[in-house]
Queue: 4 jobs
Job 1
Amino acid sequence: MHELYRMALSNRGLSRSNVLHSFRGSGFGRDCPKFGTQCYSNSENLGEIAMTLKRGSVFLIVSIAVCIASTPSALAADDEIKLTFLGTGAPRPSHDRYGPAILVEAGDYKIMVDAGPGMRERLFQAGGFEMLTTVDHLLITHLHFDHTISAPGLWLTGWLFGRKTPMNVYGPVGTSAMMDNFVAAYDWDIRYRTIVGVHKEGSQLNTTDVEPGVFFDKDGIKITAFNVEHLPINIETGEPLGMEGATLGYRIDYRGRSVLFSGDTRSTPSSEIIPMGKGVDVLIHETQVPAPGDSPEAILANVSLSVHSSPAQVAYVFEKTRPRLGVYSHIIPPEITSDELLGLTDYDGEMMVADDLMTLTIGDQITVGRAEGAGTDIFTEADVVEE
């Protein structure tokens, strides 16, 4: 049983029902949630239920279509942006939250943002061989392994099973050097496979180190990079510790729709996310909640607090930018529940916690769905090899 979650967020001032209900973020794609009473339906066919989730004085308005059997996430229209959250976790392994990776579909483009652990498998789970062989653009926010380790898998799997266009990778300074190392590491593999008969076309990896500003503007899609605050600092003074390199966020605009990716960041009042994100449709932001206690594991877990954003910092960013929808992804720790995370976020606008395989389609409304089983799982039954 698949579940389709529809969130009507075309206007910020949605009417509120009297239903109080909380649900775990991991509830997407699992058992149908149970609802309270006094809710109203605004779609008989989909069984949509408008309800209010109260968190103290904070309300989250959602309109949900539940328990639609075998209903895959819909394709995006020509003027929409579709997001598929393939991984909503971070470096810490999790059965539920794989490493950070979000697929963006706009027009004829399929663009991956980050390539965390398990991305290839989630992409296959979401769209089969059809999806694996059509993604040919990758944006990398920074060079941590949990954002880059699946780049070779995306590049080489898509090529091996039919893609004949090069993989195009964009990222901060140092990305080209990293990708050159991947090319060198898999040179023997590529030569071997082409000798036995695999097409050579599509095995190329083109990489561009980008600076802040617009670096892609084609076919109605504009991608802007901006610096974010993820480089190491002195915890006492806040001064940078001299680590070279850069860490980036991205904003993608397409035909009046927009989405912003914070990348990894400790968002302060001077964050570039604030001017870049004002009025954006969807703002996706990372977060880290401190581990309790003083065990060696808790101490080690908390060393990264200075380079990630607390829920209070995220709430500040959301308040200053007022997106149509704020979304948590890249969540530390991965086992924290949606109720807990939303309860820590003092923000009165629309927001939610993403889950792996959740989709958002950004149009006049923002529609929440689930991507799974939309493609072909058996290669010889798929029509994916480019002529």
Job 2
Amino acid sequence: MKRLADFAFSLFVPSRAYAGPASRRFRAGQATHVAWRLHTARAARHLLGAAFPLLVAAASSLIAFSSPAFAQSAKPNVVVVATGGTIAGAGATSSNSATYQAAKVPVEKLIAGVPELAEVANVRGEQAFQIASESFTNERLVQLGKRVAQLARDPGVDGVVITHGTDTLEETSYFLHLVVHTDKPIVVVGSMRPGTAMSADGMLNLYDAVVVAGARESRGKGVLVVMNDEIHSGRDVAKRINIKTNAFGSQWGPLGMVVEGKTYWFRLPAKTHTMQSEFDIERITALPDVQILYGSGNLNPALYETAAKTARAIIHAGTGNGSVPDYLVEKLRAIRASGVQVIRSARVGDGFVLRNSEQPDDKYDWLVAHDLNPQKAKILAAVALTKTSDTKELQRIFWQY
């Protein structure tokens, strides 16, 4: 193909503008060079006959499509998978920024509401669900994961954006981060205000998410969350405020930022994800039940007994360093002896739970969630339990992921 393009250049491009191999062979003089090109063109026409115009057209197309200008103009193909949430919400008046109905606007209108998307990507949408994100179930998580993986396998898709309610956005993003095997960008995005509100954030968030999903620099970084100009890892990010637009943050900081349609990166994820993950959505048909019980003073141990009747694992969202009160220890030991996993997490926003610190975890055969908050620990426990029930293996998974 290079020789074809080179030949076409030698016939049709002025020698001053082209210094390819053909022209370099004929530098004895400009007149000689021009005469040779005319002779070559006539000979080609004579030999090829009617096929000559077709060759010229093909060569011209090859030249055009290989030019730097074309490479810069080609836009990525991004699919927006809508699931509902505030970003698809609507309020009664423009002053309703916190009182509204979620999951009202279909994906086509979301995309049409940001005409600037056409400048950065070829965008199409599909409606997976139309729900508020607190209504996500394990079944819906698995269904969404399989569809996203299917889109990621499509060679005509360069990136996927998932619009999502913010209440459980951090759980869905971590689940996809664990189970979808692709290096293509998968970006989860939401908003804190409905599109009908004054100073709504969804429009810019969606634009930024499509920019990130279409950027080659976003590849291989796992599932990403884009909110409020920041790019976060789906593993680390959490909703920390329930009213303000800067609701999402990561205790280890964002991976990067989006400013005026350009991505800026500052760090990489340290934990295993996506392509390197041992978990594959194609092999997962259902997730086991995992329940979270919130720690406080004056706990009721009976709640743990009830949860243990159906759950494969219990996340103890303990105070401080995943602390367990003295009157609950024997109850949790009995629950573990019955075959249910006990995982110490912490209700505090930052930090991580140290193994064998507050409790002798090795002795009791308990797990610690490391730096995962309770809801993310729940996701990882459910995914890990599809492969193993061995405590040592499960703890290894919590360290690694």
Job 3
Amino acid sequence: MTRALRLLALAALLTGCAELQKTDPKPAAPAPQVTESALRQRAADQLALGLRQYDAGDNENAQKNLGASLEHGMLNKVDQSIARKYLAMIHCVSNREAQCRDEFRKAFEINPEFSLTAAEDGHPIWGPVYRSVRTQLITEREAAADASRPRILLTRSEQLLADGMLKYDGGDYAEAQRLYELALKEGLKDKADQVKALKHVAFSLCLRDKYRDCRATFVKIYDVDPDFDLTPAEAGHPNWTKTFAGAKAQAKKALADKAAADKLAGDKAAKDKAAAERAAKDKAAAEKAAKEKATPVPPSVAAPKKN
């Protein structure tokens, strides 16, 4: 009996150990560590995906992924400004101008070299907002810089030019043109300011589809500065690329024709001057010879004879 009881107790003990082994959980696998490089790659992937979705017209998902790419704080400054740029564009085309303006401002603050391409700058929806933000930031920076140096008062013509630039950057091209023309009429002393005013008059005309007047204004610039040219970004603007190219060719031909005519006139003047100098010299020589011929020669005095 005792042996049987011991066997029963041993069986119960083994059964209990088996149950304990079944219920005893295995240690959990360690959670994967999120590294900085993994976060950086995830941000880059989300940025790339957002840009592809934007190009495909899926602005809703593009906005989500572009925003998510910024949350990690792992994008470099240029990529951050790119993400902000496309977020601004999405907000602008969705009639959310305040958010559009805010994203453009953040892009400038993150990356001081940030700018839109010529084609992007010329967009009718976000172009004026972008230029307005840029002008505002430039004004703020200049105001901060002015605080540390003596204030220079602008002349009336210079102030009109500055006011015109504000209107231009704000998208009010008709008013900007009016102010530029007033500045020119008032008399801008600096040649660079004259060129700047004329150039932006031309821009304002082209942006309002007044291409003939735009071209004529571009041509006028060459009377002030024969070596004038647009920057690569300006020259590539879709609103005036062809108009400026035609105006430049016309102005350069006119300058070349004028230079050729001036050279011919100069050569003729030089020949006429040389001929006149030769005639004057010949006349003087002839008068001298005639005078010498007309003067009587005194008789020679004979030397006294020696004894």
Job 4
Amino acid sequence: MELIPTQKRTKNMIKKFSISSIFAQLLLLIFVFVWIAPSFGLFISSLRDKDVLAISGWWTSFTTTDVNEIYRTEGMESQVEENGYFIIKGKVFEEGSGKLISRFGVTSKNIDEFEVGEIAVFKDGSEISIDKTGNYFWRSKEKFTKKKGKRIFISASSPPSFTLDNYKEVLLREGLGQAFINTFAVAIPSTLIPLIICSFFAYSLTWMRFYGRDLLLATVIAALVVPLQMSLIPILSIYNDIGNLFGVAAKSFPGIWMAHTGFGLASTTFLLWNFLKSLPNEMMEAARVDGATHYDTFIKIVVPLSIPAFASIFILQFLWVWNDLLVGLVFLDKHPSEIILTAKLKELLGSRGENWEILTTGAFISMSVPLLIFFSLQRYFIRGLVAGSVKG
């Protein structure tokens, strides 16, 4: 008699568990899609031709796109005389473009007036025809006297095509390559220095007993709520005074290393302290009984066990420094040898705001390193975040 209610309860629990599990998985898939779709679109846009990118979305990059473009013929230097006509021949498309012309025009008022193969007449009486692959034939009874050719308006279909020219232009011509190196010069020391300091600091707050330890820990926690914007100008003033005193530049790489270390030390210390307090107390007592000093305990026991926490802190601090703009603008000049990636992108947004191929390529270069760091260390990242949630 008791078996039937038990079976019903079991079935109900399984049903509830299945529904909640399916809902959680669907919600996770939605979050993944919302995050991946823009990133994938940014990557595809960075590989597209600038003319196609300006008129169509990235989702059309795998299909044929209809485009309207303007080209100019060759000038008088290319003319030859044949059978009483002066003739200029040429091709509007580059080799291998794959574009096919459907219609063309010779005036901006009617850009698709003529079909491929028809003869169009300019105001000066010269005639031009063009085939679907872009080869044109322009002839006139009078000699061509202008260095510039005539404009041709093209309606064509453009097949899917991708190029690395955007990356070459951004890295070599726009100065983003040097900014990329400068950002590494800022991010690596600004991540490792606070990580080293907070490791010793968090260990002392967790396993060493000294006067004022609780007050020091409370100070660290209180520092988490202080906005860094409040301290930027006072710290910069101190840097300027020190620079004037010793005759060195206040805005420099060592200066921004110290700034990022100071701004990130409270959060990194708190995260690592939260992890270290979850380590078994019996292990530390056994090490003390065996005669190990605090330094030996830290190096031989705590550090190997804290690799997931170190990886998590490294990722968080690195991402924060890499994506920072405000601190970089305050503590570094905009000189090419010092400007960081986010500041350079801000400049491009103002000077090349209409060039989507430049902005999308620069943005993807900026996000590629954080993505690489995160996916390389993600297993440690998850373990480090949840390790301090359970005692022992």
